[in-house]
Amino acid sequence: MPTSAGPAPLPVLGNLLDFGRDPLGFLERVTREYGCGVKVRVEAERDTYIVTDPAQVEAVLLNTGRAFQKGYQRHPLMRLVLGNGLVTSEGDFWLRQRRLAQPAFHRARIASYGESMVRFADRMARGWRDGQELNLSEAVMHLTMEIITQTVFDVDLHGDPRAQHVGRAVNTLLDAYGHQMTSAVRALMERLPVHLPVPGEGRLRRAVQELDALILALVAERRAEGRDHGDLLSMFLDARDEDGTGMTDAQLRDELVTLFLAGHETTANALTWTFFLLSQHPEVEAKLHAELRAVLRGRLPTPQDLAHLTYTGQVVKEVLRLYPPVWWLSREPQADWLCDDVLIPAGVEVGISPWVMHREAQFYPDPLAFRPERWTPAFEAGLPRYAYFPFGGGPRLCIGNAFALMEATLVLATVAGRFRIAVPEPSRVVPDPSLTLRPKGGLRVRLHARKETS
C-alpha cells in the first residue's frame, strides 16, 4: 500500500519552523508539490495528512461523528476556553446539545435579529465623518461584539455596565487565546521533556475565570427572573430534551462562550476583508453601490431585502472564498482510512484548508481574482460540493452560518450605502492566520461619505 510523501521533517521540530513562518504559504506549497494526502509534522506527537480533493473532504466531513471525530478535546487550550460546547464536544453529548440549540437558529428567529444588526451598523456609521481615518478592524470587531451581545443577552454595550464588562473580558480572552493557539514558543515548549509554564498562559486563565463569572452571574439572574427576552440565552434556558431536561449552567457557559468566539471575530474579519477588497476593485464597488441604490432607495436594509440584494450576496460569497475566516479545520480518523491510494493511520490529524481549496484553479478560473460575478446559479451547480465550504460541512456544519451570512450582508449594505472606504497603504495588508484569518495589524482606512447620504 503506498504511503504518503511530504517535506522532510527536522528532528524534534518536524515541519514546525516552516509552518510557523508562513502557515498559508506552507500549505499552498506542500499541497502543490505533493498533492492530496501530503504528510507533514506540525504537532509534537502525531502526523498531519492534508486532504485537498473535494470528494475526500466530503467523506471526512460527512462522516464526522462516525469514522472521524473532531478530536479537539485533546487540546488543553480548547478545553480551557470552549469547554464542551458545540465546537468541541463529540458523540451523543454533542447531538443532544445540537438538538437543544437548533431552535435558537431557526430561520424566523434569525430574521428577528436583523433589526438589531442594522441598528448597530447604522449607529456606527452615523458616528463616522468624511475624511476620517480609523482602524476598520477594530471598528467592525466592536460592532459584531455589540450585535452578538444584544442577540445573546438582550443588552446593549452602550448602556449596560455588565455588557461592557463582558465585552472587555471577551476581548482579553480572544487576544490571549489567539496568542497561545498560534504561539511558536508554546509549540516548541510542548516538545520539551519537562513541563514549564508558557508565557502568557496565566493571562488566558485569568480571562477565562473573569468571563465565566460574568456569564454565570447573568445566567443565574435570568433563571431567577424567568422572563423570555427574545434572545439566544432565553432560547437556551427554555430548551428541553425529550426527557424534559434542559442545559446545566456549565453547558450554558460552554455554549455561550462558543457563540461569542465563533459569532464575533469570524464575521468581523469577513467584513474587514470585504471592505479591503472593495477598496481595491472600484468596478465591483460601483456595481455594489448601484444595486444598493436601486433596491434600497436611500433607506436602511431589512432582512426582507436580502432576496433582492443579489450582487451584494455574491460579493460576500466571493470574500468568503478568498479569505475564509476559518482557514484550517481538522478531524481524527477512528480507524485506518484509505484516501485514494494513500493509507492514513487511525489517530493522526487529517487537515483540511478552505484557504487552499478555495484558490484551486481547476474549480475557480483565475482563482486569485476578486470576481463576485462568478457566483451564478450555473457556476454553483457545476462546482463540486466541497470545493467551497466556508462554514465547514456535514453534521458539524456551523450552526450559525445563516446568522453570519445575514449579518455580513446587512452590515455591508448599511455601511456601503453611506461611505466609500479607501485603504491608503494596501501593500501593507497581509493575512494573519491566527484563530481566524485577519489582516495583520488591522486595517487602516480613510472614510469618504457619499454625497447622497446625510
Uncertain stretches of 5 or more adjacent residues: none
Q: Roughly how much helix do the residues carry, as a percent range?
A: 40-55%
CATH superfamily: Cytochrome P450
SSE string, helix = H, strand = E?
HHEEHEHHHHEHHHHHHHHEEEEHHHEEEE
Give Rg in angstroms.
Answer: 22 Å
Strand content: 5-15%
| C-alpha end-to-end distance | 68 Å
> How many structural domains can be distinguished in the coordinates?
1
CATH class: Mainly Alpha
Overview in brief:
By secondary structure, the chain is an alpha+beta fold.
Tell me what the structure shows.
This protein is α+β, with helices and mostly antiparallel strands and 454 residues long. It has one domain (16-449): Cytochrome P450 (Cytochrome p450, Orthogonal Bundle), CATH 1.10.630.10. 50% of the residues lie in helices and 9% in strands. It is built from 18 helices and 12 strands. It has helices at residues 16-21, 23-34, 54-62, 76-82, 91-101, 107-112, 114-126, 136-153, 161-181, 184-189, 201-225, 232-238, 249-280, 282-296, 310-322, 354-357, 377-382, 401-416, and strands at 38-40, 48-50, 68-69, 133-135, 329-333, 337-339, 342-344, 349-352, 419-422, 431-433, 437-439, 444-449.
